[in-house]
Structures are given as C-alpha cells and as structure tokens.
Amino acid sequence: MSVGRSRFVTGRLLQVVPVLAVLLLIVVLLQQLMPGDPARVVAGPRATVEQVEQVRADLNLDSSVAAQFGTYVSNLADGDAGSSNRTGVPITTIVGDRVGVTVWLMVGGLIVSTLLAVPAALLMALRPRSLRARACGRVLTIVLNCPVFWVGLMLASLLALGTGWLPVGGYGVGFEGHVRSMILPWLTIGLAGTPLLARSAAASLRQVLAADHVTTARSLGLSGWPLVRRHLLRNALPPAITLLAFQASAMLFGAVVVEQTFGLPGLGTELISAAAQRDFPVVQALTLIFGAAIITLNLLADLAVALLDPRTTWQ
C-alpha cells in the first residue's frame, strides 16, 4: 500500500475514534435515561433502602457520569461487558449464543435483496419506458409502503401456513432445520430492503448511461452485457457499495422486528426482552454492538469506495 493510501486509511480510522467515544457516552447515559431505578430493579421490589443503596454502589451508579464512563470503558477493554440483571449470565456469553443468528439473518437478507434489486435496477435503467419496467416500479412502490412485520406475516401465511413447506417460526434443529427456519426471515428482510436498493441503483446507472464515455461506446455499437460489464457496473460500483452499507445498517433495525416476528433467538429479540424487563447491562451492551456495527459498516464502505474509485486522489 502506498504512503498516500496509508495516510488516507489512517485518517479515516482516526475519524471513527470520536464517533465511538460519543457512542460509548450515549451507552453510559442510557442507564440514566431509561425509566425506572436500575438499583431497585436488580435488588428486587421487596429490598430495603439499605439493600438498594448497596446495589447502587456495587453497580457504580452513585458515581459521576465521568467516573461511570471511565469504569465502563476500562471494563470493556478487559473484555468484561457485565452480567445480566435477570439471570446473572455474562453478557459476552449471551452475545456469543445469539450473534450468529443475527449475522446469518443479515447476510441472507442482503443476498436476497441484492439478487432482487440488481435485475430490477438494470431493467428500470436500460428499459425505463417498457411495460415490465413500469410494472416493476409499481411493485417496488407497493413493497416499500408495506411494514416489515406485515410482509413477514403475509409470507408466513402464503408459504408456511398455506403449503406447510416451511416452519412459521423458531430456529429449527440442526443445519437443515436452521436453513429452513431462516428462509422466510431472509425473504422478509430482503424484500423490505429491495425497493430502496433497486431505485437508488437504477438512478446511479442512469447517471452512468448519460456519461460521455458510455454515449461514445453505444454510438460505436456496444450494447447488451458487454456494455453493462465494461462501463455500467464498473462505474456504478462505488455508489452501490455505499448504498449496500446503508442498506445493511437499516437491516440491523429491521432484524429486530423480523426476529420478533419469527421467534428467532437473535440479538434483536434479546434487546426487546432486556428492555421490557429493565435489564440495563444487556440493553447497554447490545446498543453498543448495534451502534459499533453501523459505524464499522460505513467505515468499510467508505474505504472500499475510495479504493475502487479511480478518481480518488491519495493526498
């Protein structure tokens, strides 16, 4: 890697540091902002005032925000994210048991969304006035306005209850059971992300089509897949990567709804359950994980776009 590229990557990484610091501060303040007294929740409704105060001291809740921030960051650096108020299980164990489901849901959803969006974008960009392109645009508009949970329920009614081919919910047993249980969630989250991805990609492709070098190539007789491969996809790739990162970030929030809809034991389901039961350490840790994941996705997309775009100047 050249010196210019090294400086660029280092600069982007340094820009993330203050963002992570703000995220950590929000996570620490989250315990102050959530309704209810964390010490009372941990101690139980029948605990005495002395017991509640002891729990507050044990959880470092009687310290200043700065002291809580320092303690939290120090514990994270040591690999200690705390334990659940409900079960006493270490949060690292909870995350380790559930993160695979959420990651698998995200990856499958992105694949489905991409497989559906790419042909739709090419159709709307290359044949914008055709009947198929107009029909595709109307279908995308309808899907865009449908809530994610409703899409999941409709798919479950049509493909699971109506045919019995797929399970309605749960995570199944074994690899085959896991895959069968994830098909409907993949389709749900993938369909939810397809309209924005397809429309944005089509707009990007139309901009590339209007460029001078593409006009010249078409005037020379280049068309079809060679035109798409040599000129359209290559030049439309950087904005597409940025869009995919944005789509993945949005899917993180959609994963919470989809996991609840299909009863998947992922991080989203755990976050909803922890918030409902005032399990503050788990809520803090999962909020941090989701926030850090979004920051990481955008950072990787930024670096990938800079590395792939020939117009980038490495100064």
UniProtKB/TrEMBL annotation:
Keywords: Cell membrane, Membrane, Transmembrane, Transmembrane helix, Transport. InterPro entries: BPD_transp_1_N, MetI-like, MetI-like_sf. The keyword Cell membrane applies. Pfam families: BPD_transp_1, BPD_transp_1_N. GO terms for biological process: transmembrane transport. SUPFAM superfamilies: MetI-like. Residues 99-301 form the ABC transmembrane type-1 domain. One of its GO terms (cellular component) is plasma membrane. It is a multi-pass membrane protein. CDD domains: TM_PBP2. The chain crosses the membrane at residues 12-30, 103-126, 138-161, 181-198, 240-262, 282-308. It is found in: Cell membrane. Belongs to the binding-protein-dependent transport system permease family. This is Binding-protein-dependent transport systems inner membrane component. It comes from Conexibacter woesei (strain DSM 14684 / CCUG 47730 / CIP 108061 / JCM 11494 / NBRC 100937 / ID131577).
